[in-house]
Amino acid sequence: MFFSEGYTPSTEQPTSELLAVARLIGVRTRLFHALRASSYRSSTGALFRTVENMSQSSSLKRKQQPTISSFFGKTTSSSGESTNKKASLNGLGRAKQRIREEESNLSPSPEDKGEYLDDEDEDIVPPSRKRVKSSRISTDGANAAAKGNDDDLSQSPHRNVPASSRTERFRFQSSPVSSLDAEGSQVEGREAIDTERERKRKENLHQKFVRRLGGPGCLPSLEHGSNANTAMTEGGEDEDEALDEEDVAPPPSTKARGARKAASTKLTPLEKQVIDIKNKHKDAILVVEVGYKFRFFGEDARIAAKELSIVCIPGKLRFDEHPSEAHLNRFASASIPVHRLHVHVKRLVRAGHKVGVVRQLETAALKAAGDNRNAPFERKLTHLYTKGTYIDDTEELEGLNAVGANSAAPATGYLLCMTESNAKGWGNDEKVQVGILAVQPATGNIIHDSFEDGFMRTEIETRLLHIAPCEFLLIGDVSRATDKLVQHLSGSKMNVFGDKVRVERVSKSKTAAAESHSHVSSFYAGRMKATSTTQDERARDLLDKVLNLPEDVTICLSAMIKHLKEYNLENVFDLTKYFQPFSARSHMLLNGNTLINLEIYQNQTEQTSKGSLFWTLDRTKTRFGQRLLRKWVGRPLLDKQELEDRVAAVTELKDSDATPRVGRLKTLLSKVKTDLEKNLLRIYYGKCTRPELLTVLQTLQLIATEFSHVKSPADAGFDSPVINEAISQLPVVLDDVVSYLNKINLHSAKADDKFSFFQESEETDEITEQKLGIGSVEHDLEEYRNTAAEILCKKKVCYVTNAGIEYLIEVENSSLQMKKIPASWRKISGTKKVSRFHPPEVVNLMRERDQHKEALAAACDKAFLGLLADISTKYQPFRDCIQALATLDCFMSLAAVAAQPGYVRPTYADEARISVRGGRHPMVEQLLLDTYVPNDTELGTDGTRALLVTGPNMGGKSSYVRQVALISIMGQIGSYVPAESATLGMLDAVYTRMGAFDNMLAGESTFMVELSETSDILKQATPRSLVILDELGRGTSTHDGVAIAQAVLDYMVRDIRSLTLFITHYQHLSNLARTFPNGELRNVHMKFTESGKDGQDITFLYEVGEGVAHRSYGLNVARLANIPSSVLDVAYTKSAELEEKIKRKNLEGIAKGLSRVLENGENEGELMERLLSEVEQL
User: Fold this and answer.
1) pTM for the complete prediction?
2) Which residues form a coiled coil (predicted)?
3) Of 346, 706, 881, 1167, whose CB neighbour count within 10 A is largest?
């Protein structure tokens, strides 16, 4: 760049021309550094140095460095050498004066010189390479060359010129040059010392940089724009802080290349710990506590960075030392602050991951005093979480899905275990025997069932939709149909459960039944030994109950005990009061299709709760009340007396809304802000925090005090026995709650102060001992002030605290006391005016005090866990109190619904009957802006048992039949219904066959799915069931569809005798009503009016009327759907032609029939009746 094309100096000896060029480069480099030195004082200077160090560290790895010859072009011949030399000497002579002037003007100050020299990088290259370093050149070397070689420029260029120190530093050879003059030797000696210091400093800086960046191989990814580090998060803010000492690997060996490679794969003590724990929990994402951070390593870091949007520092992803990652010597890592642990854990768990938290089991103070002070911190997996087992926070995992109009329909928090085997006598998957066990760890509820299921798996689907688990545990292999169903229900975030569901599988041995029975027996036998003598009878009843469970349920129970033991939640199986079967026949059965088609829990369009029956009835104030109401909605009552009591309670609360006693109940429910049911279970598990415990006890005290005057149900003051019984349960816990509150310091509990949590009289001996130890040490620290005053010859010495460091002795720098400070005192900090010191005696006392504090913290935690265990013995009465309050909350919710205009209290009949006058759809009515058109319905076993519903498309047929079913379900829940009057019988089930979809995964067409569901209904329906069939037979040809629909309808009415609502567009089915002279089957249709040309404009009246609608007006719907007018014109023409053709054909048939009657006269009555029917249809 400074020479003309074709000039090449000798690479063996430094020539005068080369020295002059080097000086010119040095001047320009010094100019650059002088300008840069001024900018170093700004905040951007540090950032510039960091970037420069990164580029230098990267350049050390490059094998090809540019030599001086790379700056020039072609080499010249020897004949023209002298001419070129003379020309260059003239130019160089003129440049020499300019160089001197620039050097005198641009020589940097010592501070600036030191700043940029600190950033130099030494490089030693063997002589065979002869590379020139193209980095910054020392200013001292440039000056020395300028002074020592002025006269040599006029001499022969072939003369060996002694190299200056700067030139010699950047002349690459195997050993230092010894032929230096006296001045050069002195300069070299000074620079040799600086160079050694510089080399050590840069080596340390380089090691820190590599550790921070993640090891070799990371720079290329950064240079090529790797997107691994693009996310900026709160976790990345901590990355500038110091690493844990145990995370530093031994320095690599420099003996040989093979030795360096072996050293690069050496693991740090922390990494060894992580690998050991990871090998035991390979399916979990580990969050490891490292000092003041929680860190992810390897593949876990990559997953966490993706899910949490935090920075992932590149490195090894695998934990098996795979050869593909041999070039990396650090694991990929990501970190989060300690105080944000549960925020991020919840996000990972919600995404379907299994998360393990690894904590340090010893503190720095105790470790320093122990025998393992040089060993790494002891760490252990202390918590394991999945979506079904996360109970360390009272907030819902669904978080934002709060109760309200726009909330989603979240899973219920159940963990469901299922096993499956072929049913007896069946060698394929067509019929299977299924056992399930569902546990809700947050509330202690347990549901179990054992049943047979057909190839459509409707029974499994019904239970899964009712329970709505957030996690599956499948035991052994399940059939393909079951597996597909589980995948369908849990495969995506938009599933019917409202969120992503985790599926885990465990193996099943051939002797699983015997092993499970033995395991369950030993588990509960151990529980019996641990109980007191007063609980022996209850424990024996529990064991008898468990051992009498079906075999497949026992297999599920054993697997669930093992599974929850991993999460320390196995104690939930002691709570036997809530250990209930699913298929108790005291409730109406709502199968999976019914839950979906009638939108019991969520709507079918957005998969949210808005627009569902549960959303309509939910006016609860508490979370535990909401969960109980969800059970009521999904399990309507069959017991008439129980139903009458529930409706009477709702009626009394509605009618007494303005009375003080109902007002007190409303006020009490509005004050309960915490989820007591979940909090109580966290106390039972020993996972409750101190502020949380205080909140639970104070809330229970509030509840019990509000009705403390109630000693028996008769004192409650209500007419309803159900309400009186619930209120009488509330004050039972008052004495126990007050006794626990008297043991704790309320202010300290609220502030989560473990050291003063207990009242002094309630503190354990261990706590008292440690507090006395701390007091003694603090007394000694105060006494040492006198000793320090004597040493410093002062009257008084006071301790100061600076930057969080306590017990500092502050001395003025200008005072005489500075000379009297002992050498053993360690200076901690200082300013221009004062210095602060720690005497060794103070350091030892502080270390002893810290050890007492750590022991005190452990003692306080132990005492707190003991208190939680004591409260757990009162779990049952506390839970009964909360359950009673939840019942009252549900009654108040149903009373709020009943208070709406247009709602009426239903009356109940013993027989299967539905008699509704002016009924309305409960959900559509609330969402519809216009007034909903009411309709009447009359069905009963003694009269009309079935209605054949016809009408135009979009005329309201489906809405009408859903309205009838929903009113029946609401009535049996115990709610008022939207009607003018209603008399309802006790229905045992509601079955629906609505909508059309295929099952491609099972190779089933839409028509096959329709008939399979219909087959299940025909097998399960009883005379007390309500059956809704919507357009059965439309998936095949008209003749086959009509035949199937007519046969099914006839069987339902004549044989099963169920209450049936049958929607169809087949007009021929209306003739079936003639075969029931007593009116068991009636034809009804949705009314409409025609107007416009050829009756093309249809007005829907949405009223039910007697008779048959002979046209469906599908072309009207096509026009509403904006089908092109040209297509509609053709459709109208074809429709008219077909209608005319059918009319002509029917007339021919009638004429032939009349002729036979006139000719033969046989069967005249029957034939004439059929002819009249056909004439009516015309």
Assistant:
1) 0.68
2) 1128-1178
3) 881
